[in-house]
Amino acid sequence: MTAAPRRLPGRLTAPAPGWTTRADVVIVGSGIAGLTAALRLRDEVDKVLVVTKDVLNAGSTQWAQGGIAAALGPGDTPAEHETDTLVAGAGACDAEAVRILVTEGPEAVRELIALGTNFDLDADGAISLTREGGHHRDRIAHAGGDATGAEIQRALIAAVQAAPDIEVIEHALAVDLLLGTGPDGEERAVGLTLHVMGEGQRDGIGAVHARAVVLASGGLGQVFTQTTNPVVATGDGMAVALRAGATLRDLEFVQFHPTVMYLGPDSRGQQPLISEAVRGEGAFLVDGPPEEGGTRFMQGVHELADLAPRDVVAKAIMKRMLETGRPHMWLDARHLGGEFWERRFPTILATARSHGIDPVTELIPVAPACHYASGGVRTDLDGRTDVPGLYATGEVACSGVHGANRLASNSLLEGLVFSRRIAAVLAGELAPWVPLRTDRRASGLVAADVRREVQETMTTRVGVLRSAPGLAEAAELIDKLAGCVTGTADQDSWEATNLVTIAAALTAVAAGREETRGSHWREDFPERDDARWAGHFDLSLVGGVLDASFTPAPATDGAA
User: Fold this and answer.
1) Pairing status of strand 364-373 against strand 397-398
2) 97-104 contacts: CB < 8 A, separation 24 or more?
3) Of 346, 368, 390, which closes a domain?
4) Which of 269, 284, 418, 444 is 20 to 30 A (C-alpha) from 162?
5) pTM of the model
6) Same domain? 186 vs 224
7) Could you tell me if residue 2 is inside a domain?
8) Residues 384 and 348 in one domain
9) pLDDT tens for residues 68-96?
């Protein structure tokens, strides 16, 4: 399949770099994936540079409430974790990638503890483990009740700040990769251009010359109007990689978290997440208050009922919303009691109360919202992309572990495990310093003020529920928006261009996959179709035109 031509830039219009610096490896992103890579690489190369779009703790990792999944408890095994991951992935996982994740995961979590991460402990002093959707065992380690990501981020930042050989540049937007020709004649990544605010002599556009680049820049949540992702999640890393010749895989599999606090029809941007762990502790979904005849509706939908995989729960909520005409459903966790809420979910409790809902005494209004990109920059099992010198890890990457629907709390684990794997091979693969060359890619820029329309288009036509007519309308609108050029080279326009690029890519592959699988839900093709669609959509950008191709999966790829 070849997508309709879209006027997408091969690089972003930007001023010439006004400053330069060098590092053996430059890492884009400061969440669990980026900081783990930096800490592991510091002993392998002379200089590591971490660049981050905001401050060190502003990414998605700090917002991870539920925890990190690993087979750490008595009776649990990596094989059981593997089975749950494959089932959630709906036949689109890379089985070997999953096996790596679950077998290397426990050791990686123990290293986090050794680094100073303080997980919650039970009465016997062992790691306290809970359960989330899709898991058949208690295997979710958490910290601060519901502040796991923040605690992991704290420990990693402390370790990086204690390492003088890791340089950090904050408030730095990755604009584009720098390309050069290696000794073997191959085009390769040799650094990147940055736009930096507030760094003194490094204000404005600069160039980082490097021997390798690691993308750990997070997801694309801001392409939708409502998301659990922070404002920095504008798909920059995916767009940067696509413009440089890398392949995007499985981009249609965007996970919508089923229980995001509903703040009203006009709410925009980052929304409060009600962690799946709340249901893991006994909360349940209802279609209305009991005094109005509201009932539980997940019984009979799945064997795990309210703890079914996220795609199952999100679809059940949406169906019930459509049936009742209501804009949201409710989560009932009143029976957990005030003391339990204060101890186990203090962050969620405070957030809900700040929005006028007390979960101790009231039902929580919830609806699905964009949460996680299971697809991304295609990598092999060691994080290599198909651009030499470019690696990717974490949510920006598609390692193959998540398939069509990420299993709860596997995201932190993926960033941890695959960043360690990149560090294990990268130093031995570093090329000699390669001279920069003139960038021959056609530049362009989309007007900053299209951002709202892109988000509205994606939410209404490429959101939880998709169809051929809606996707065709989205493709036409996005193509039109891509033609809204601007003469202002600034962060708002660069982000808008990245959002348009990723929106066009996501829409193209969502239109191509004529089935329902995992988090990709087509109302016009409501069934999973392994005979036609067991496999992956890959996307590349050639001459400003998106090209999508379908790769059938080998027989061992994933599980039913």
Assistant:
1) unpaired
2) 97/381, 97/399, 97/400, 97/401, 98/400, 98/401, 100/381, 100/401, 100/417, 100/421, 101/401, 101/410, 101/413, 101/414, 101/417, 101/418, 102/70, 102/71, 102/78, 103/78, 104/417, 104/420, 104/421
3) 368
4) 418
5) 0.92
6) yes
7) no
8) no
9) 999 999 999 999 999 999 999 999 999 99
